[in-house]
Specification:
Elements lengths: L1 H18 L10 E4 L2 E4 L29 E2 L2 E2 H9 L4 E2 L7 E6 L3 E5 L2 E2 L6 E8 L5 E4 L4 E5 L5 E11 L4 E11 L14 E4 L6 E4 L24 E4 L20 E2 L6 E18 L6 E10 L6 E2 L11 E2 L5 E22 L3 E9 L2
Parallel strand pairs: 6-13
Antiparallel strand pairs: 1-2, 3-4, 5-8, 7-11, 9-12, 10-11, 12-13, 14-15, 16-18, 17-23, 18-22, 18-23, 19-20, 19-21, 19-22
Pfam family, one: F5_F8_type_C
Protein name: EGF-like repeat and discoidin I-like domain-containing protein 3
InterPro entries: EGF, FA58C, Galactose-bd-like_sf
Length: 357
C-alpha cells in the first residue's frame, strides 16, 4: 500500500512542476501571462500533437481578427490565399468581339467577371491599348467612352486580378466606323459644322451671339442651366422662375410683382454673355424695358453699362421676341434682369446667348 501512495505522489509532483508559473526563461514549458498563454518545448526538445486512431487535429479560430502564426507567417491567410481561385470571365467569346460602334457616339462594354471568394478586384490593360477617348471604368466594371470617328479595329487584353494576385486575362475587340456627323445638323442657330476624326467627330463654328458645343442658347436648354439655377425675387402670385424659359409652356412667362422684382440665372461657372432675348408671354401684361447686372460670386453685382457712359444700359422689350447684343460682352456667372418699365406687371420670357465652359 505504501508503494502505491508513493507512486501517486511522484506523479502529481511531476505534473505540478510541469505547469507551475515561474520566472520567465527559455526552460519554461508553460507561461501564463493573462490574457496570453505560451506553450514551448525545452531546449533541444520538440512539440508534437497526435490523436488516437490518426484523427484530424484542429486549430479553432474565432472572430474576424483571429490569426494563427508559424515563424511569423499567418497560416490562416496563407491557406486562404492558396485555396483562393482566379477570376472567371463570363459570357466572353474566344475572339473577344464586342461590337461595331458608330464613330463619335458614346458606348460601353461590360466587364463580366465572377470572383469566387473575394470582392477585391482590379483591372488593367496588359496588351494593346485603348483608343483616345475610351477608358476603363473600374468602379462600374465596364469599358466606356466615345468611339473614334474612323473606320478602325481595336484589340487589347484586359487582366482581372484578385487581392491575392490570382488573375485571368480576356481579349477584347471592337470596330468603329466613320460617320458624317454633320448630316444630323448638330449645330444650331446657323452654326457651321466641321467634320473631324476626334472626340465626337465634329465641331461647330457659331455665328452671331451664340456659343457652346452646339451653338445652343443657355436658358432654354435645361442641360446647360437646370431649373435649380433659376431664381427670382418678388414673384407675382405663384409665378415660377423656370417659367421664364423662352420655350416654356407658361401663358405669361415669369411675372414679377413690381419694379423691385428681379429674375436671376446662374450659368454654373463664369462665362461670356453676348446678347439677351426677351418676349412677352401675353399681351395684357408684359415687360417694356429692363437693365441687367452681373456677378462672378453671386454677392457683388455690377450693372451692364452703356458705351461711353456711367449709367446702366436700358434694353427695350415688348410683346414680340427681341434679341439684343450687350454693349460689351459681360464676363460673369450670375445674371439678373431688373424690370424698368412694364404694363400691369413685369411678365416675360428670356434667353441668354453666350459661351459657358
Amino acid at each position: 500500500m505504501t508503494t502505491v501512495w508513493i507512486s501517486r505522489f511522484l506523479c502529481l509532483w511531476k505534473i505540478f512542476l510541469l505547469f507551475q508559473a515561474t520566472d520567465a526563461s527559455h526552460e519554461e514549458v508553460l507561461q501564463i501571462h493573462y490574457p496570453s498563454v505560451t506553450l514551448s518545448a525545452q531546449k533541444n526538445g520538440y512539440l508534437s500533437a497526435q490523436t488516437e486512431g490518426g484523427g484530424d487535429i484542429h486549430i479553432n479560430s474565432k472572430g474576424n481578427n483571429t490569426a494563427v502564426y508559424f515563424d511569423n507567417i499567418n497560416l490562416l491567410q496563407l491557406i486562404e490565399k492558396v485555396m483562393s481561385l482566379p477570376p472567371v470571365w463570363m459570357n466572353h467569346t474566344d475572339t473577344g468581339y464586342s461590337g461595331n460602334f458608330e464613330g463619335g457616339k458614346h458606348f460601353s462594354i461590360p466587364l463580366n467577371v465572377m470572383t469566387p471568394g473575394t470582392k477585391n478586384l482590379s483591372f488593367e490593360i496588359v496588351a494593346g491599348s485603348l483608343p483616345p477617348g475610351v477608358f476603363l471604368d473600374i468602379p462600374n466594371r465596364r469599358i466606356s467612352g466615345i468611339a473614334p470617328d474612323e473606320d478602325a479595329e481595336y484589340i487589347f487584353t484586359v487582366r482581372a486580378k484578385t487581392g491575392y494576385g490570382k488573375f485571368a486575362d480576356a481579349v477584347f475587340r471592337f470596330d468603329s466606323y466613320e460617320l458624317n456627323q454633320c448630316e444630323e445638323n448638330p449645330c444650331h442657330n446657323n452654326g457651321v459644322c466641321n467634320n473631324t476624326n476626334e472626340g465626337e467627330g465634329y465641331t461647330c463654328n457659331c455665328t452671331g451671339y451664340y456659343g457652346e458645343r452646339h451653338c445652343d442658347t443657355g436658358v432654354s436648354n435645361k442641360k446647360t442651366i437646370p431649373d435649380a439655377q433659376l431664381s427670382a425675387y418678388l414673384s407675382r402670385d405663384q409665378s415660377l422662375a423656370t417659367e421664364a424659359r423662352l420655350n416654356s409652356n407658361s401663358s405669361s412667362g415669369w411675372c414679377g410683382e413690381n419694379g423691385n422684382a428681379w429674375i436671376q440665372l446662374d450659368l454654373g461657372s463664369v462665362g461670356r454673355v453676348f446678347a439677351v432675348t426677351t418676349q412677352a408671354g401675353s399681351s395684357d401684361k408684359f415687360l417694356k424695358s429692363f437693365t441687367l447686372s452681373c456677378s462672378k460670386d453671386g454677392t457683388k453685382f455690377s450693372d451692364v453699362m452703356g458705351t461711353n457712359t456711367t449709367a446702366a444700359y436700358v434694353f427695350p422689350s415688348g410683346t414680340g421676341a427681341i434679341t439684343q447684343p450687350l454693349p460689351d460682352p459681360a464676363t460673369c456667372r450670375f445674371v439678373r434682369l431688373h424690370p424698368s418699365t412694364y404694363k400691369v406687371h413685369p411678365c416675360l420670357k428670356l434667353e441668354l446667348h453666350g459661351c459657358v465652359p
